[in-house]
Design brief:
There is one protein chain. This protein is α/β, with parallel strands linked by helices. Helix content is 37%, strand content 15%. It is built from 9 helices and 8 strands. The chain has helices spanning 22-38, 56-62, 64-79, 94-104, 134-138, 167-176, 186-189, 221-234, 251-265; strands at residues 7-12, 43-45, 83-88, 109-113, 157-160, 179-180, 194-200, 236-243. The chain has an 8-stranded parallel beta sheet with strand order 2-1-3-8-7-4-5-6, sandwiched between helices. The radius of gyration is 17 Å and the shape is globular. The N and C termini lie close together (12 Å).
Amino acid sequence: MDRPVSASVVALRCRTSDRTPGGVRGVDALAARLARLLGVEARLIGSPGDGRAASWEDDLRDSRGCLLEAGGQVDDALTAGDFPVLLASDCSICMTTLPTVLRHRPETRIVWLDAHGDFNTPATTTSGFLGGMCLAAACGRWDAGLGVDGPIDPARVVMTGVRDLEGGERVELERAGVGTAAPEALPGALEDEAIFVHLDLDVLDPSVLPAQFPAPDGLSSEGLRDLLAELAEGSRVVGLEITAFEAPEDEDERDRLAAMIESVVEPLL
């Protein structure tokens, strides 16, 4: 597989659209493990904010600096020829990270592993959650006003594991032409292609990993590990972002879950 020989592990601790404190706990727990696995020192960016339910307009305004930092960290890694590993509380970071990846590597396909499509717009959202609108913004379905590269071509995105969509969101996905693939078909569909993996951990079944927005019928940990191993074997992985590890307060349980996640993603690293 054609990939850089060094890695950059970045823990984005600043608030984007976090609604609980569990996401930042998860970022910290995974950063330590993945940095140790890769033999590098994790870069910690920002300080945790208060988890709160806010409108997408407020979150977009308040987290602008954090969102731009996410894209900047990916830009720095790819410019240096490193393999970016970015950890964040929720998926809002993709508004800046994905356009950055495509600017550096225009041939890259985006693998979207998530229980949710995150493809609402201000016109379709029923929750007002910025994290549920971010991929649509990255694909130019609405203007988040971040002034970054893009929009990305929705046809460069392929979704697997998405199973919780709102009605208007489903229509947006169909109109945009975002691709979908069953987990067993994904590696073959992306064979020999450059890919950037967006992994929202709620793609796992909530019986395996508790989630802030749980959706039943997700992947098992073994199934996700096998899928990532097949992608690593057959595709050229150029980077990885991991979101939504809703880590519990209990330290022992948090460590157990973090170890499980490390085992799942190890094939990509």
